[in-house]
Design brief:
By secondary structure, the protein is an all-alpha fold. It is built from eleven helices and two strands; from the N terminus they run βαβαααααααααα. About 65% of the residues lie in helices and about 0% in strands.
């Protein structure tokens, strides 16, 4: 199912950017997460749970895959988040090790903490916020960096500035905030040099979603 969910659909269909499905997205995020964990190990020694992060990036799109859809960040709602959560639970609840998968899937929702999620999920998200805050920050950073890397690829390969302009506009304030909370992010990834590079590469791009 995940291979049928096309991401960046508006850019792909209207501007010719590379087709990416949920499987490719999740795989690229796992590869990035492994590099991320290695680089931030010394900054986060004993402060994070690398396996939780790997599980989170591996499972986080299962709900979309089950529903056969991709929802743009600007179009996400609590109701749609709940639908994806329920689809994930329906698929995984009878598997051994469900609790670990459950925690990992919910990691992505901790910053938002949707009020319509069931009490069990609320309890888990509250615990993750308290005990795994660096993992929450890491997931957010990974997701936004991954978006940027895809958009940079389109700028480099087909000279598409629009996708990068849009993603940089959305990701920059999030990564700026995370760089103040997640040790190592500013030093290893969200460096002044990388920010300047993104600014230059996105210059002149249209920040609106193609229609």
């Amino acid at each position: 199912m995940m291979s049928k969910v096309v991401r960046w659909k508006a850019w792909h269909e209207l501007q010719g950017t590379r087709r990416q499905d949920d499987v490719q997205h999740s795989y690229s995020l796992v590869v990035l997460a492994l590099n991320f964990i290695d680089k931030l190990h010394l900054y986060l020694y004993l402060k994070n749970d690398p396996l939780l992060i790997i599980r989170a990036v591996t499972y986080h799109e299962i709900g979309e895959g089950e529903l056969g859809r991709d929802v743009l960040l600007a179009n996400k709602t609590d109701a749609k988040d709940l639908e994806e959560y329920e689809a994930f639970v329906a698929r995984f609840r009878n598997l051994s090790g469900f609790n670990r998968c459950h925690d990992a899937f919910l990691l992505q929702f901790v910053p938002k903490r949707p009020a319509n999620f069931p009490p069990e999920a609320q309890t888990i998200m509250a615990r993750l916020a308290e005990e795994n805050r660096y993992d929450v920050y890491a997931f957010q950073a990974l997701e936004n960096l991954n978006y940027l890397f895809y958009a940079i690829e389109q700028r480099v390969t087909i000279n598409n500035r629009d996708c990068l302009a849009r993603v940089f506009l959305m990701a920059r304030p999030i990564l700026d905030s995370l760089a103040q909370k997640l040790p190592g992010l500013r030093e290893e990834y969200w460096t002044p040099e990388f920010i300047a590079y993104c600014e230059e590469m996105a210059l002149g791009g249209n920040t609106a979603v193609p229609k």
